[in-house]
Known about the structure:
2 copies of one chain form a homodimer.
Chain A lengths: L3 H9 L4 E3 L1 H9 L5 E6 L12 H11 L3 E6 L21 H15 L8 E5 L1 H4 L4 H8 L4 H5 L2 H8 L6 H17 L3 E5 L3 H13 L6 E5 L25 H9 L6 H8 L4 H12 L5 H17 L1 H16 L2 H5 L2 E2 L11 E2 H7 L6 H9 L3 E3 L2 E2 L6 E2 L1 H4 L3 E4 L3 E5 L1
Parallel strand pairs in A: 2-3, 2-5, 3-4, 5-6, 7-13
Antiparallel strand pairs in A: 1-6, 8-11, 9-10, 9-12, 12-13
Helix pairs in contact in A: 1-2, 9-10, 11-14, 11-15, 12-14, 14-15, 17-18
Amino acid sequence: MLAPEEQLRIIKSGVFEIKPEELLIKKLKRDEPLNIKLGVDPTAPDIHIGHAVPLRKLRAFQDLGHHVTLIIGDGTALIGDPSGRNSTRPQLTSEQVAANAQTYVNQAFKILDPEKTTLRHNSEWLLSMGLEDILKVTGLFTVARILERDDFSKRYNGNLPIGVHEFLYPIMQAYDSVMIKADVELGGTDQLFNLMAGRELMEKMGMEPQVCLTLPLLEGTDGVRKMSKSYGNYVGLTDEPADMFGKVMSIPDEIMVKYFRLASTLSVDEIDSIEAGLAAGELHPNKVKRQLAANIVAAYHGEEAAGAAEADFDRVFKNHDAPKDIPEFAADLTPNDEGKVYLAKLIADAGLAKSAGEARRLIDGGGVKVNGAAIPAKEYNVDPSMLAGAVLQVGKRKFVRLA
Amino acid sequence: MLAPEEQLRIIKSGVFEIKPEELLIKKLKRDEPLNIKLGVDPTAPDIHIGHAVPLRKLRAFQDLGHHVTLIIGDGTALIGDPSGRNSTRPQLTSEQVAANAQTYVNQAFKILDPEKTTLRHNSEWLLSMGLEDILKVTGLFTVARILERDDFSKRYNGNLPIGVHEFLYPIMQAYDSVMIKADVELGGTDQLFNLMAGRELMEKMGMEPQVCLTLPLLEGTDGVRKMSKSYGNYVGLTDEPADMFGKVMSIPDEIMVKYFRLASTLSVDEIDSIEAGLAAGELHPNKVKRQLAANIVAAYHGEEAAGAAEADFDRVFKNHDAPKDIPEFAADLTPNDEGKVYLAKLIADAGLAKSAGEARRLIDGGGVKVNGAAIPAKEYNVDPSMLAGAVLQVGKRKFVRLA
């Protein structure tokens, strides 16, 4: 294994916070594989490269020789993680959870090394807990401690209901850390409370506590809001190569390095050198962004597909002849009550389809692209930020630039 | 069965509150035996006539033809009822709970009609609940609703810890009402929140909710504080007949009628007539109090023992010769830091024992009485209100009146 200091340098790349760092160093100094935990709430099956940020960091730990325990929260999913929510989540059925979990795992193993991954389902220990066991564990936390949680205190002080069952969530996922004897637990910054609860419970139960490692949320392709399916600013792990390439190419230059650190397969040294090159003006941002896009496509679809996606992108966007031919269309991007623009109607207004109905069918068939990325079926309403100044393409030949 | 209105009159005697009364009338009008619930937390084995107040009311329901379900809270006792507490109760072991429960049941059947009583242990359904079941039930309550509970909100606002497991208490005992399909649940006024939670849960689970019936707390023999072993102002169900008689005779006249309503076996008509007789000055308070004392002793030890206890009491106190002979002793009744007077030293100071050590041994042997009631073994420190103006007796012949 690499020296602890060198390991720490690699681990820290892109990380928001390590609590406490000294304990991580102490653990690394033992020169034995650590057990790195990631708990996954299988509430939504499709994952995007924002969700994949902790998976990439797990992979970095694996490449350093450590072991990963991926916990599918099929037990906790019956509660629903209240993190960052201002209302109670609908409780899922076991069938929904199982289906979501399978889809998630298939996608996660595009990133993780299966040889160094143990897959566990927390239903294994949580669903066999009886009232007595639950009382023993919940008795180790106070109501005030759980109410300190940012989202809970906001809801409590705002007179929004919190179900008593939601109080059990952070405690039960903390119990996961006890069960698998985690050395480090990873999560987004919004998971810090849950991670710290795991640390606290391990200590209260007389174990060496885990180190909590949080990763920043990845901004979506708009560079402003966090990546989310509902904002339409995401790059899905199962997106087609050309879409994926086009979407990454649409991100603002300012967040390229962050994307490299959190979403690419490049080494820390390579990223450090890119960052320095950009800062010194030695590297051209557009060239760097193409490298990023190609890397991300290759990670999920292979080198060949990445090459083809890049060529496809060039044909449409880089080819200096084509853009000149694209007519401009002064689109009305005023959002509706839900903050969206009805894209189907806009397509018809721009003369790219005979009616909004036809435009909807074209969207469903994958024939509508914005900046080279296909609009998913049924997404007839999109975020205006996606459209401003973008190239709207219908079929192979019809283009307008939205002005 | 009696007419609903007549039943209601009997049920209401001595009761603090019925919520809602209209629903009780509706249930009574069905002219079928109702299922009356009392949940018992077997945390302390010995019970006194204050604890027995709801048992007496259950007996009244039984005498009207209704059925009682007595729930031994051996499941909930693993949590510990937080009612009226300002700190977390220590959690009991299953063995302690089982032993306490047996002692309680033996005493409860001195009052209840076994033919009309079903004994259930809530461990039967609570301990077989898994996480999923617990989530379903706890999800029907909000954190804010449970924090409304007087004792919880006091602790929360006073920064005193509340264990998360304590939140499960009112919910789990509410679930008892669902399991046994209670029509009415009885409890002390301090149990109103728990009772209402049962009502709420039954409604949320689509059942006809129970009626909540609360009974006032019974003052102890000092007539001021609630009856409690720790205040030394209690009449235990297993007290010897003479002690029991003497203790009841020591209560202030003002609370006699309340004792009749809550602790005697007399009918509502008899009690109404006693209350009227006292108010009109037609009955002598002392004579009435003797009737009360004799009734309570007879209820637990039989008529014969009651007669003997009364004769014993007369020999010492009523005999006009004896009191004249009793010397007065100006005792120092200044309480110590714990609000108690060290009785053993007082006995020695009064010349009734050679030393505090000897006085302690006399107390342990049952040879020390205050107003005819023996001081229990090891109770060397007593409440000053018990002693002011009282006759202190050591052995058969030594008396002083404390001035």
